[in-house]
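The instructor's notes for this session suggest beginning with a concrete chain rather than abstract definitions. Hand out the sequence below and ask the class to guess, before any prediction is shown, which regions might be ordered.
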Amino acid sequence: MDLGLKGRTAIVCAASQGLGKASAMSLAREGVNLVIAARRGDVLARAADEIASATGNRPKTIIADVTTKEGRDAILTACPAPDILVNNAGGPPPGDFRKFERDDWIKALDGNMLAPIALIKATLDGMIARRFGRIVNVTSHAVKAPVAMLALSNGARTGLTGFVAGLARSVAEHNVTINNLLPGTFDTDRLKSNLAALARNSARDIGAVTEEIRIANPTKRFGHPDEFGATCAFLCSAQAGYITGQNILIDGGAYPGTF
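After discussion, reveal the predicted structure:
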């Protein structure tokens, strides 16, 4: 399927690895002109090389911390009028909420709620004026089914979800959509770090913990980042203009509810 995105411009945040890189890869295959951002220049450069080698479409790279105003300004200077915005940032650390201090909560909010809102604010009106815009926020399955050890993520990402729920309906008439993608257990470095923390907290072998989580999923496997990237690209497509304000779980059926 041609997603109708050739020649569009996109910002993809935290795109040096994992789900952000997979999203950028899928958009590059559709002929989107990409600006990808991440904090580590060496990892970001490798990601750009991989995307260019696989698709023939080399993204522009911006070394920036999206959780800071300076980082966001650098990204927006490189791409002031994107048609597509993929908000993504590394999740806050897992742990017992009793051990978190106020600064931990503020950092989580800055990264996983306030930074995405700031980028939406900076780009939304241009999308409205051009009558095309696709915003995808990478959040977490924990928004739908909170996980105790992900307290910081639960709070910050749920705050973003509430904000998007109201905003998405107010701009839909302008062919601007805003959706959230809620990944479950994908084979990424983030998953590995969470599994390691779970193993430490339970004083268990990480191999046993990993296998237990894997077989608990109805698919009996972890998700592949390419599956996530393809879903993200479709939500950005011309064909997805009637999908907005949604929280789309991509978790192999792990969430057991009907709604």
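Then share the key points. The mean pLDDT is 95. The CA atoms of residues 115 and 204 lie 36 Å apart.
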